Amino acid sequence: MSHLISRFLEGTRFLEDRSFRKPWGDIAWLHGYRLQEHVVTRDVRLVSPQQVVLASGREAECRAQLEQLAAAHHLPALSGRAIILAHGITRSSRCFATMARFLREPGVHVIGFDYPSTRCSISESASYLTRLLQSLQGIRQIDLVVHSMGGLLVRTYLHSQAENQDARLHRMVMLGVPNGGARMANVLARYAPFHWIFGPAGVQLTEDPAGYAVTLPTPEFEFAIIAGCRGTEQGWNRFLPGDDDGTVTVASTRLKGAADFMTVRSLHSMMMWNPTVMESTKRFLETGSLRASGEREPIL
């Protein structure tokens, strides 16, 4: 059992920023300032771009503090384009720090979205995304870059908002998303430590023909998929069938309707730092193609 768990945690790197039990979820964003809600108490806090807590208490009080701060610092109203980065289970937006710098340019707001991935179900986490999107008043176009469970969170949002989806959603790149479920979750869900570490959402990641992941809707806006792989029939993980990134199989990442698909030699937890992944992600968001040639490999 210890070998299996260590193998899975190598893929998720849940101790990377020591926030795998973090209970806060973003509900609003303004030029790096964030309002976050506690998943249990429902208290709200105002956090600066430097991760300093400036105020805490009721939501109305914290929103008032944010408005006062915006006026005092002459923060302009939001406009232009936003790119939202959604991390996977046990991680935080800090895992996207390198990619955030790579994607940032004038007129583009890059937003690292944090949510309590191990403290609640995927549908509860998706409600934080709903509120964050609603806070981005003035933004005309929203793109998404999602890693692992972050992709299932977005698909859950699309299901919950089937009649009221945000029309500004433009393009999305999925990195190692287990669209068909994660076989390793099936193996590890039999052991108690898995449930303590990964929480309610961990069980929802399991691979099942009638499981949670396969019941979610396909995005109606344009999206691409990048799968991590080893480039061999065995992949990185001998407990998984076919090629894989150590945590998710290449086959599981595939989702019908994708405008483009490619594989990159990478482990699951390191995809967002891979130069090819970063370049291909930026290219797709701007042009609709992962490759410099402009050729696409859609999943029909």
Give an overview of the whole structure.
This protein folds into 2 domains: 2-20 and 78-287, 3-Layer(aba) Sandwich (Rossmann fold), CATH 3.40.50.1820; 32-75. The chain contains 9 helices and 10 strands. It has helices spanning 2-12, 59-72, 97-103, 122-135, 149-160, 183-188, 192-204, 250-253, 275-287; strands spanning 24-30, 33-38, 44-47, 53-57, 81-86, 108-113, 141-147, 169-175, 222-229, 260-265. Strand 9 (222-229), helix 8 and strand 10 form a beta-alpha-beta unit. The termini are far apart. The model is unreliable at 1-18 (pLDDT under 50).
Main attributes?
disordered N terminus; Rossmann fold; 6-stranded parallel beta sheet; 300 residues; alpha/beta; single chain
In a nutshell, what does this entry contain?
By secondary structure, the protein is an alpha/beta fold. It has nine helices and ten strands.
CATH class designation of the largest domain:
Alpha Beta
CATH topology description of the largest domain: Rossmann fold
Biggest pleated sheet: 6 strands, parallel
Strand content: 15-25%
Shape: globular
End-to-end span in angstroms? 39 Å
Number of strands: 10
> Could you name the CATH homologous superfamily of the largest domain?
Alpha/Beta hydrolase fold, catalytic domain
Mean pLDDT: 93
What is the subunit arrangement here?
A: single chain
How many domains would you count in the coordinates? 2
Q: Enumerate how many helices there are, as a single number.
A: 9
SSE pattern, N- to C-terminal: HEEEEHEHEHEHEHHEHEH
Radius of gyration from CA coordinates = 19 Å
What is the CATH architecture term of the largest domain?
A: 3-Layer(aba) Sandwich
Helix-strand category = alpha/beta
Helix content: 25-40%
Low-confidence stretches: 1-18
As laid out across the biggest beta sheet, the strand order is 6-5-7-8-9-10
